[in-house]
């Protein structure tokens, strides 16, 4: 059974020049839900820092994700546009966010915030890692609505046709990622949190997040259409896969260094 991607306007509604888009709403929903859950998990954990610090970190996290995501996208996927017109990097309204760039941005934010407030880096990084799949889920659903990051052509029974792209059945790769990187990864981290996590295992959730995200992203990239202007390296690996390989090994190193096994 081949399905057709429903025609959903990326713009929910507009007021003159101001547009409210699904992509922006996805970010807002992810941040708000994440802040609530981080406080909940922090209370369960009875960590050494108060929830007030989580409120203070809210703006830091937004800046880290958005600035890092935009810079990462432009430098990795749109370098030619940046070299031709350097201020292109601030053209956020043109779209384009990189997960790997956003990850670096949020790591820098956590590091600076931790230093400023004299708290352990992984005490905050683990809580952020625990709720990160929520943002990934909403982000991939927004990608599906925007008809971005489409899958490769396939004869898979539940393929989807994207009428605005072509009439070929394709893997709904955005939904695969929403399921694996969002729902499944969140469940895995929840199980680890409630089964074995404690303040003496700081680093455990961060390590497992990087490891499993890297595995899931690397796997799904085989079903995702590679970026046309970049293509595949060695006719095999996409840019997303190349960037995900280090995450797998960094996750393993963190778990090994911290001896944070389940």
Classify the helix fraction into a percent range.
Answer: 55-70%
The average pLDDT score comes to: 88
Structural class: mainly alpha
Measured distance between first and last alpha carbons: 41 Å
Secondary-structure element pattern, one letter each: EEEHHHHHEEHHH
Widest sheet, order of strands: 1-4-5
Percent in strands: 5-15%
Rg of Cα set: 19 Å
* Quaternary state of the chains: single chain
Uncertain segments are none
Q: Specify the overall morphology.
A: globular
Number of helices: 8
Largest sheet: 3 strands, mixed
Total E-strand runs: 5
Describe this protein with a few key phrases.
262 residues, two-stranded antiparallel sheet, mainly alpha, globular
Detailed description of the structure:
- The structure is a single chain.
- With 262 residues, the chain is mainly α.
- The chain has a domain at 120-258.
- 62% of the residues lie in helices and 6% in strands.
- It is built from eight helices and five strands, in the order βββαααααββααα.
- It has helices spanning 22-45, 51-77, 79-84, 99-117, 121-145, 173-196, 204-220, 239-258, and strands at residues 3-4, 11-15, 18-21, 160-161, 169-170.
- The strands form two sheets. A three-stranded mixed β-sheet has the order 1-4-5, with no helix packed on it. A two-stranded antiparallel sheet has the order 2-3.
- Helix 5 runs parallel beside helix 7.
- The chain is globular.
């Amino acid at each position: 059974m081949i399905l057709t991607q429903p025609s959903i306007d990326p713009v929910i509604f507009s007021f003159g020049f101001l547009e409210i888009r699904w992509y922006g709403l996805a970010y807002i929903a992810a941040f708000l839900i994440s802040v609530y859950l981080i406080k909940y998990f922090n209370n369960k954990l009875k960590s050494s820092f108060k929830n007030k610090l989580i409120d203070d970190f809210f703006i830091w996290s937004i800046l880290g994700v958005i600035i890092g995501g935009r810079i990462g996208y432009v430098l990795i996927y749109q370098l030619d546009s940046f070299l031709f017109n350097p201020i292109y990097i601030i053209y956020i309204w043109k779209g384009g966010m990189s997960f790997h760039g956003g990850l670096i941005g949020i790591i820098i934010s956590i590091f600076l915030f931790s230093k400023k407030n004299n708290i352990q880096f992984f005490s905050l990084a683990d809580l952020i890692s625990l709720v990160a799949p929520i943002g990934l889920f909403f982000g991939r659903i927004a990608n599906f609505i925007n008809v971005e990051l489409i899958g490769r052509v396939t004869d898979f029974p539940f393929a989807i046709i994207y009428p605005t792209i072509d009439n070929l059945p394709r893997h709904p790769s955005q939904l695969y990622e929403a399921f694996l990187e969002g729902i499944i990864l969140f469940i895995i981290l929840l199980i680890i949190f409630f089964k074995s996590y404690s303040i003496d295992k700081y680093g455990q959730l961060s390590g497992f997040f990087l490891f499993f995200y890297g595995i899931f992203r690397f796997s799904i990239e085989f079903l995702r259409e590679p970026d046309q202007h970049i293509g595949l390296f060695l006719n095999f690996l996409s840019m997303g896969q190349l960037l995900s390989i280090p995450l797998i090994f960094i996750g393993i190193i963190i778990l090994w260094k911290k001896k944070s096994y389940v």
